[in-house]
């Protein structure tokens, strides 16, 4: 019993049989985390765009400098890049999970 706890395997089952479900669980968790990260990045992009819209109005009325407006544009571009990176990360996690399922099901 003590050995089974140390190996994190069930009594009477080889360690390799427990490795596959644990690996799948880890891959599935990576997909869930990737989806949350992508949603958060999308929200940050939307917020940066809204800020840019308000900065455009403020610039038009002379309340901010051109540099402040350009900083807002840079923030939008950075947020869009982060969103694309998060989506690529999510795609990779989903692809890894999909291939792991195919490997187990075949």
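-> sequence recovered:
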């Amino acid at each position: 019993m003590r050995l089974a706890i140390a190996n994190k395997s069930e009594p009477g089952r080889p360690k390799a049989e427990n490795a596959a479900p644990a690996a799948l669980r880890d891959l599935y968790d990576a997909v869930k985390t990737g989806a949350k990260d992508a949603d958060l990045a999308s929200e940050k992009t939307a917020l940066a765009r809204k800020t840019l819209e308000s900065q455009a109005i403020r610039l038009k009325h002379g309340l901010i400098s051109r540099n402040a407006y350009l900083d807002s544009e840079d923030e939008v571009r950075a947020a869009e890049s982060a969103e694309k990176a998060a989506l690529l990360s999510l795609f990779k996690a989903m692809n890894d999970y999909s291939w792991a399922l195919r490997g187990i099901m075949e």
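The CA atoms of residues 100 and 106 lie 10 Å apart.
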